[in-house]
Structure formats: C-alpha cells, structure tokens
Amino acid sequence: MLGPSYNHTAENPATFFLVGIPGLQSSHLWLAVTLSAMYTIALLGNTLIVTVICMDSTLQEPMYCFLCILAAVDIVMASSVAPKMVSIFCTGDGSISFNGCFTQMYFVHAATAVETGLLLAMAFDRYVAICKPLHYKRILTPKVMLVMSMTIASRAVMFMSPLSWMLSHLPFCGSNVVPHSYCEHMAVAKLACADAMPSSLYSLIASSIIVGSDVAFIAASYIMILRTVFNLSSKNAQRKALSTCGSHVAVMALYYLPGMASIYVAWLGQDMVPLHTQVLLADLYLIIPPTLNPIIYGLRTKHIRERIQSLLIYCLFDQFTQGI
C-alpha cells in the first residue's frame, strides 16, 4: 500500500526553501504587516482567554474548559506558521531544515485535527445545555470531559502521524524549493522523486473522514438545538440561546469553509485556481480562526467579557499605582 521502501538518507536535502506567495512577492511587505498584526491579536487574545479561564474558579464549566483548550490549540496552530511567514515576507529568508519542515507540517495537521474535534465537543456541550439542561452536570462530568479531550488528541495523533511518516520517508533528490509560505503537505509532496500519491490520497481521505464526520454530528446537534429553541415559550430565552449558538456557528464557518476549500482546491482545482490564490487560501485557513476566535468569544460571551474587563482594569490600576 505504501509502495517500496527507500533509502533516502543521502538523497534528501538538508534544507528546504519556502518561496512565500508565488507571484505576490511585490506585496510581501504589506502581507508581513497584516500577518504580524493578526498573529499579535491571536497570541494576545488567546493567551488572555486561557489566563482568564484558568484564574477564575467561576469559569470552570465544560464550555469554558473546551474554549480554554481551543485557545491553546489556536496559539500552537498560529505559532507553527506565522513567525516563519513573517520572516519570509520581511527578509526573504525562506530556509527551513528538512526535519523542521516535517515538524511544522505535523504540528499544523495535528492542531487542525484537534481543533475540529474541539468544535464538535463544544457543539455537543451546547446540545446538552439547551436540550437537556436538567441533566447537564450529570452528563458532562469531569471524567467525561477528560475522556473526550483524550479521544480528540489521540485521534489527531493516530490520523496525522502516518501522514508525516509516509511523506518524510520519500526521496527528495530534485528541487528543494517549496512554492508555498509554509510546509504544506501537497506542496512538499510534489518535490518527491518517487510517487507521493499514497500520502496525498491518505491526506485527502483522512481529512474528509475527520471533517465530514465532525460536520455531520455538529449539524445534527444544531438541528436539535434549533428545534428546542423554537419550542421555547420565552422570546428572551430564544434570543439568548440563538445568540450563544450564533457565535459558535460563526467560529465553525470561519474554520471549515476556508479549510475544506483549501484541501479540495489543492486536489481538484490546481489548473483552474491560480497558485497564489491557493497559497493565500491555505495561509488564511491557519491564521484567521486563531485571530477571530478570541474576538468572537470575548465579545459574545458575557462572563468572559466581564472577566477580561476586570483583569485589564486591575492590571492598569496596578501599573498606575506602581508608577505613583
């Protein structure tokens, strides 16, 4: 299934060179400024959410715990690619070691697999909270949450480890120039001197299974949530439930739409979609959700918004008193 074994030790390049965004080199400086701003927002916003949830004992409900893990995963996902992208766009230094390239690839794929699992867990949390409120604490116990979290992490490792292994064990005896701004799987696979179809096919099938099953369960959860919400007699309760679910749906749309578009364009639309558009789509897929998730949750979730405001006021007051 995986094809013949290769002795690639002497053939592989010590370094790959990332181009950035082919065809948009003249815009790299503006892209660097934009990306730096987005990465800063992602880093500060997600760190703030993790800090607030960990420090506040009143925010230890399952929804906030899943949100805390999501924020941590967003930091890992953005940090796997953004610093190197900024370096490429600012200085043109696109060199990355062979091992560093596949390490980056592994963290990107694993983080995205964990993120989609967390979005499913959060949809299930909202289903239980709205459709079975009297059984919420009995169903989502700390033990159940731990099992869910471990299952999500194990699934990511189980699906994504073979992908990096299959590709890293191919010979790379030709060009070492990657026409991308990070070590994206398909872009690196095209440089292999042997048939990379098994790893590429595995990537497509694994991604489709993970995302397809998660989206199906998420959709089922929200269909049942909407049925319950519209049967509520109180209009205020309806608005509150729809507001909470609306922010979750917005986060999921930001994650799944560009993600699936990026995967299938790389497979099916290579000749129809310009390369720079494909690369931009893949980049935004990894940067936009970590940037907007803390903004959406911070603005839409009342408890988190209040805790963040209290923390910022406390920090500013503390700095002011120390200055006096």
UniProtKB/TrEMBL annotation:
Q: Which residues cross the membrane?
A: 29-52, 64-86, 106-124, 144-167, 201-225, 246-267, 279-299
Can you provide one Gene Ontology molecular function annotated for this UniProt record? G protein-coupled receptor activity
UniProt entry tagged with the keyword Transmembrane: yes
Q: Where in the cell is it found?
A: Cell membrane; Membrane
Keyword Lipoprotein annotated: no
InterPro entries in the record: GPCR_Rhodpsn (IPR000276), GPCR_Rhodpsn_7TM (IPR017452), Olfact_rcpt (IPR000725), OR51/52/56-like (IPR050402)
User: What range(s) does the G-protein coupled receptors family 1 profile domain occupy?
Assistant: 45-297
GO cellular component terms, semicolon-separated:
plasma membrane
Q: Where is this protein chiefly located?
A: membrane
Question: What is the membrane topology noted in the UniProt record heading this document?
Answer: Multi-pass membrane protein
Report keywords, A-Z.
Cell membrane, G-protein coupled receptor, Membrane, Olfaction, Receptor, Sensory transduction, Transducer, Transmembrane, Transmembrane helix
Q: Name one Pfam family in it.
A: 7tm_4
Family according to the record: Belongs to the G-protein coupled receptor 1 family.
Role noted for this protein? Odorant receptor.
Q: What is this protein called?
A: Olfactory receptor
Species of origin reads Octodon degus
Lineage, please?
A: Eukaryota, Metazoa, Chordata, Craniata, Vertebrata
